[in-house]
Amino acid sequence: MADLAVQQARKGGAAGGLSRFLHNTFIRNLSAKIAAAPMMATVLVVFIGCTIWTIWYSLTDSRLLPNGEFVGFEQYQRLFSTSRWNVSVVNLLIYGAFSLVFTLGIGFLLAVLMDQKIRFESAFRTIMLYPFALSFIVTGLVWQWIMNPSLGLQGTIRNMGWESFTFDWLTNPRMVLFALLIAGLWQGVGFVMILMLAGLRGIDDEIWKAARVDGIPTWRTYMSIVLPMMRGVFVTAVVLVGSGIVRLYDLVVALTDGGPGISSEVPAKYVYNYMFGAGNIAQGLAASTMMLLTVMIIIIPWAYLEFGGRGRRT
Amino acid sequence: MKKFAVVAAMATAFLGSTAINAAELEVTHWWTSAGEAAAVAEFARVFEEQTGHTWVDSALSGSGTGANPVIISRIIGGDPMGATQMNTGRDAEELIQAGLMRDLTDIAEELNIHDFYVDESLLEPCTYEGRIYCFPINIHSWDWLWLSTAAYEQIGQPVPTDWNEYVESWPALEEAGILPFGLASGWPIAGIPGALQSGIGGSDLVLAINRDKDAEAVRSPEFRAYAEAWDAIRQVVSPDTMVPAFADVGNQLLTGEAAGNIHGDWLQGDLQVAGGVPGEDYECIPALGLNDQLSGGGDAFYFPVLPEGTDPEVIEAQTELAKVLVSPEAQLAFNLKKGSMPIRTDIDLSQANACMQKALGLLGNGLLPSGDFALSSDTQQQLQDLNIEFLDDDSITIDDYIERYASIIESAD
Questions:
Q1: ipTM of this model?
Q2: B76 contact A CB<8A
Q3: Do A259 and B392 touch (CB under 8 A)?
Q4: Best CA proximity match to A283, nearest among A102, A60, A89
């Protein structure tokens, strides 16, 4: 087939450029293109198509149904003058920063401890991973009981006689984000630990031996040799943890429902409330577009560094 | 686009509708507390006895904020139920515009509903371009102050008769370790500002804000008086004293743990189930004892347009249910359990308890349009966000609150 095309191209002259283009686009590697077609259609329609739909309707005054008139950036103006939204964004930034650092940090530390050839390793692994098997809703409800000031930990310890003990993070607007963080970490750390453990097990024993021969201390081996070698695992973990942070919703609904007041609101909850509860689709879509934009601002430079330029892939 | 949405909805509905059995009518509602469930069971009983159809009960949790989105998305998504409860108001307006709700005008004419509805204004939100799309089945009001007899016995004071006396009693209550104002977290907070507005601000204020969307009314001294009362409440409630559900507040009142609460009249359904007797265990004060009009709306039943190919029996069952809901027998049975006021006055209400009798007395003065009656759910959500933020965050001053309230009302539609 390719030969045929080359002959045609030679014959064709000026028209040859076009036919070669068409040939390259549609005929060359035809079976591969057919195989990739469903995926491409999904990407075009579901991801790109729906994103464009979302952005377009966020520029209208649609209410319950997507049928409004174009109004420019009015929805965005309203969005950023709404204190609930601004609080949500700040909350997500704080939660996200702490969650990312602590999930990766504690996850790695646990994996290192787990890697010291300890006894009953698989039992510990199961215990650590168990919370991950629970949904955020269950996690939220469990921690709601634990952290309930009158029924949970605080109440129990006070009943045991330590009257001044206070653990009221759930009802304290300044600490409620950290209550969320505790529940989130409890649920997520085990999974990151397993990922990291798999990464550590992937490090060749020869490297450890070589490091020992050179007299490098263990912590230094971890920091300077093992960590850089686990780059791929770290990238995977960051992407997984990061996407979990951005879509944070169910944990908040189950644990605090945005309270006390609006001090633990998150963007995803704002989107849901305005899209469905308040019947204002355009406002909800504007908020979700902002969420998308935030993700893009983080992802695009990173993807450029990671995949572009140096032609190196992990 | 609108047409497309409807066609798409119908098409999806058509695909999914083959499993509906004849004359089984699925009814969705959010009456889940003990008193409410007892009331809705009365509807089911009368419906099944009188028509022989089956009432398939789909109770949804979460009230207007949790259940309403589910109901709306089921209708838009093409999986309509046979009948559904919704608050009368503007929530359903777009569904009607899109042709997703069944036109009930013929049934209404057959029954002559204009003759027996106690207040014509109740039918207004159900009417769209002269056609009727829903039947209000009760009249609810948020404007009730509930007081605990036990709490006031404990501090040795007479039970207050209006809001001002109640506020004056707070220091004594706090000293005795009694919660002056019991409060459930979540949506029960949302109704309190409206009740305070009509009680303290007065009827004119409610009409100016809810009906005329007049931002100047928000900057008036009457509104400031309301805001100060709302501020007083936030001084005595804190997140760690809030209980999960409004029925828990009912228990607090009966035991005397909390002295008072502002909540809608459906609270008394739960107080009844818990064994409370009005006048002995608790006092109910309509319109906070300050106004002679109640603001109210109500629950209404809508009947979504069923997809083509639905068994005619089911559509017939819809018609029958619509008639049963407003019939004297069902109205009496339902409202006595629910604690709300019936929509017709030609029935014998001598069995009604003291609280309902008080409400019936005020009903003669006409109903004020409540917020969820007159404001779009978008505006309601904004006001609710503001109120919840204000309640928790003491750094928002009354002036800030008034300004932000005014700007929401300015952009309200």
A1: 0.76
A2: yes
A3: yes
A4: A60
Domain edges within chain A: 2-58, 83-307
| Alpha-carbon span A247 to B337, nearest angstrom | 43
**Considering the domain A83-307 in this protein, what is its CATH number?**
1.10.3720.10
Q: For residue A278, list chain B residues with Cβ-Cβ distance below 8 A.
A: 377-378, 380-382
Q: How far is B128 from chain A (nearest CA, A)?
A: 17
- Tell me if B284 sits within 8 A of B146, measured CB to CB: yes
Element (H, E) at A297: helix A281-307
Q: How does pLDDT run across B162-217, given as a tens digit for each residue? A: 899 999 999 999 999 899 999 988 788 888 998 999 889 888 898 888 888 888 99
Q: How far apart are CA A159 and CA A134, in angstroms?
A: 30
DSSP A210: H
* B155 touching chain A per CB within 8 A: no
**B33 compared with B7, residue with greater pLDDT:** B33
B21: confidence class by pLDDT, cuts 50, 70, 90: very low
User: Of B72, B381, B385, which to mutate for an interface test with A (greatest number of A Cβ within 10 Å)?
Assistant: B385
DSSP class of residue A186 equals: H
Fold of B141-295+367-410: D-Maltodextrin-Binding Protein; domain 2 (3.40.190)
Topology at the third CATH level for domain B2-139+298-344: D-Maltodextrin-Binding Protein; domain 2 (3.40.190)
Return the residue in B378, B391, B410, B411 with the most chain A beta carbons within 10 A, the one to mutate for interface testing.
Answer: B378
pLDDT in tens, B91-119: 677 888 888 899 999 888 888 887 787 77
List the domain boundaries for chain B.
2-139+298-344, 141-295+367-410
Hey, what are A197's tokens?
């453990």
